[in-house]
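Entry:
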Amino acid sequence: MGPFAHIYEWGTWTVYVVSFVIGIGFGAALEMAGFGDSRKLTGQFYLRDMTVLKVMFGAIVVAGVLLAMFSSLEWIDMSLVWINPTYLWPGVVGGLLMGGGFMIGGFCPGTSLVAAATLKLDGIVFLVGAAIGIYLFGETLPLVQDFWLSSNYGQLTLPQAFGTSTGDVILALVAVGLGSFALAELAEGKLGAGKGRKLRILPSSRLGWIGIGALVSFAAVAAIEGAPTTMERWAWIAPEANQQLTSRKIYVDPREVAEITRNTNLRTVVLDVRPEADYHLFHLKGSRRVTLQQLTDPQVQQQLATMPDNTVFFTVSWDETAATEAWKRLAAQRLPNVYVVAGGINHWHTVFPPPPCLLKPGTGKHLDDRPANHYLRAVGDCCNTAYPEVAYKQIPTDCWLDMTEDAQAHSAAGDQEITAPSFEHKVKIRKKKAVSGGCG
């Protein structure tokens, strides 16, 4: 289902009205297709009436092709389209159970509502049974919860699963769809109401040929144009995003980063985009080193996008240049709650000074996004300056030889409460807007 995110800005009642109108339209389409009749619905299991396959699979193919084409032409941002997470084995078991219920009762949950709306007795009985089943499932969920949440692949798509492009998947989907429709015609001709009639696989009307030609042409456009790149997505949001950069709304003071990390109600992810050698020289405890190229990798984007709603992301480099480039890539993917550590690691050391035996202040002006201090050794995340929101843990052994009173004062910085009203709090937690739907 496409993203109707803007209707949330118009008020709650607007959401109700729009949802009601869409629901009525969807139900009317199902009724006109004959999906309020349990005999027509169950006919597909006996290969006598393949209307369900033709209508539903046809809708899936057309929607997939148009979404891919609109995305390739930059008419729609697919990062705003909600994709249901994939729980593989629970999905397989649930599909088998639903299919068995479909064969016995003659409806799926959506079509039972259509039948009940037209006062069909079997639809009403099925709907009541579905309500009882939902209640019983809710009451017994703790018994099967581990399995229910198992094999979570996140918001997995076919291009990700098969390691290929969206265009290739769309072309394959069209081919499978056309082949399925041909097989459905053969099945109806052999076993269904058309038994004994002349078998017809190809369209018999000019309109049918036009439809197939349009579908193949749209799929070809999607395959040739390809999915938009991360930087093309950035161009869509650049006017608004550049205002955030200019006003520095997304640059967060290190002290607020420490406060957020200390907040047990939030999850903090720090993405360090410096070279590997610089990362090992010093990095914030728990941070993850990534390259700018990795942030355009669909698998990495998928991992970040499926993190909980209470996750706050921070990008960091020596100063701000590389971290800002990383922020642009994440913002282009519509990832919420992404910020840049203001001033980078160089400013971090100013706010949370490490023991003097670990580094010496640099002299003169340093190159952009390079260390402003001279590190005496690679320290990684061993010191409390790397994790100032918790008590001091450990310093390199040879630092004990230099532990003057001044050094001890610096090394105890992590034990102090962070009370600095002089900085502006900028982090505002935004939840992902998910608009989902389906037949069930």
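The chain has 16 helices and seven strands.
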